[in-house]
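Standup notes
- HV: blocked on the assembly model, inputs below
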Amino acid sequence: MLAFQAPSVYQASKCYFTYGKMGHVDPKQPPSKSKPWTTLLGQDFVHRLDLIVPEEAYEAVHAAVVQNREAPQFKRVVISLRDVLSGDFFTEYIKKGNIMMVSEGRIGIDNVYCLKDGVLTMFLDKETYERAGLVGKPHGVKGKRGLKPRWVVEFALKGDSMFPGKKGFERLVYASKNALSAPVTWLFCNVAGTVPTPDPLLQHSPANHTATPDILQSVEAAIPLLQPAAEYIESGARDDLESFSTELYEWLSLVRLESPRINPRDDIDPFLCRYHAPDPVTPGKLCKISWQGYLEFLATVPNAPSCGHQTRWENISCGR
Amino acid sequence: MKVRPRKKEGIGAALLAKAHSAEDASRIFTEKVQQRPLFLTPSSPPPSDARAARRRAQEKKKEQRKKALKPKPLSATQRRKLGLYDVPREGQKYAVFEALHTLWVGYIHEVLGSEIYTGGEGAAAKLASADFHGAEVEIVRSGCVSRVGIKGIVIKDSKFAFEVITRKNRLKLVPKEGTVFRLEIPSPKQTDDKSQAPTPAKEQPESMVVEIHGEQFQFRSDDRASRKFRTHFSKIL
C-alpha cells in the first residue's frame, strides 16, 4: 500500500533520483511503465500536494490545473463497515464506481481500514484479528513474533467472488457484524467523478470538504542550476550526482516551505543561517499552487506531467 | 609396552598371559572366555529334574493368569476400530440434539439458580463445574481463524476438544487450545413464556452471555466437577 517504506531504526530513509529525457506525452494516455510515471501512479493517499512552476509558465499551468477543473472534493462520514459492504453503497460505489476511503487511526497503533481500487485492506491488532476470523498476513517489522503482533487482511471487493451469498464474502460480513461492528469515521473520495442517483452516502449525513488550491504568485527566488552538469552524467560520478540531487532537494523544500532564504536579496546574519542556494544562481520568480486534504494524485493534477513540456521545468511534491 | 594382541588369540588372552603363567592363562581363557555358556533365555538350560520342571510350569501359568485378569486400556487403533464414540449417520441431525439442548437449559437453570441474573464470580464457579453436553456454543475468537464462526450443540466434551454439531448437520471437532467459546443462556422467564403470548421485545429479559477460555478449560468434564479454578495469566490474551 505504501509507495515508500516507513523509516525505522533498521533502515534510514532513502531518496531516489532518476534523470532522463521525456518524449512527447499524450495527455490522455500517459505512460505507466517507466519512471517517473510508476512513482506518480504509485502514490496512494496524498494529504498535501504542492506544484511549483516558474512564473512564465504559470498562466498555462493555472489554466490547465486550476481554472478549467473543479477543486477536488472529499467527504467525512461516520459509517460502520457493515453498511459499507451492504446495500446500495456496495453495489453503486464499490462494485460499479471507483472510490477511495480511509478510516480514522494510525496504522500500526489503531485498527485502520482502507479502500482503494476496490481492495479493502484492514490493519488489525491481535485481538480483533482473532475475533474476525479472516485470513491475513503478519504486519510490521516483528510480524507474529513481538509482544503485540499486528495483522493485515486484504479483500479484493471488485472480484467475482465478492457477492452476498458467496462463502468468502459471507465470512467478511460475519466479521463486520461481530468483531468489526463499531461505526468508524471515514474520509471518502469519489475518484470516478460521477455520482450515482440517489446517492447512497446521503443517508449517513456526510460532511463535505473541498481542497481549494492555495496560490502563491511571484515569489522572488534565486534559482540554481536545475540540470546536472553533463560530466556528472557521463562519468557516472556518484558523489557529485548525490551532492547535486541533495542540494536541489533542499532548495525545493525551502521553496515549498516559503522560506525567505531563497530570496536573492536575503541578508540574514550568517550567525543565524548560512544557507546559500547552490551556485550558479539566476534570480527569477516562482509560483506555488498547493492543495491540502484527502486527495487522489492523478485526479488532482492529471495534466501536470504532460504540461511540463510547455514549461521549462516544474516540481510536484506530495506528502501523506 | 605393547598390548597389541596376536591375531589368533585376541586381547583377552594377551591380558591373561600377563597375569598368570602360560598354562593357567590358556586354561582360564578356554574355560571362562571361549567356552563360556551364553544363556539366551533365563530359563535355559532346561530344568534337570521333573520337580523343577513342574514348579516352573506352574509359576508360568500363575503369572499368565494374573496378567490376563489385569484390565488394560484400549490402544488408539482399537478404540477407533470399536467406534464407541461415533455418532451414526442417521443420528447426525441437529434436530435430534435440540431436545438435548432444551434439557441442558433446564439443567443449567437449576445449577445457576438466581445467579443467572447477577452473574459474577458465584455464577462463574458454578458454570466451571457444570456439564456442557447439550450447550449451544459459538466460537468467537481463535488463534486458528478458520474456527471462528462455528456454532452448534456440544455432543462431546473431551479433555482437549469440543465436538459440536452445526445447524447444517455437520460434526465439527474444535480444539479448546487458543479458542474462546461463547454461550448464551436464556433466562428462565423466556423459556416459560414460550407457551403464552409473546411479550413485546422491550419487556423480554435478556439472556446471560458467557465466554469460556478454552486454554484454561482443558479438562474432562468429570475432572472439572471437583476442580478449583484459580486465575492464570493467559499467554494468548
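- HV (later): unblocked. Chain A touches chain B at residues 127, 129-136, 171, 174, 178 (CB under 8 Å). Chain A has two domains: 37-72+211-317, 73-210.
- Next: hand off to the docking folks.
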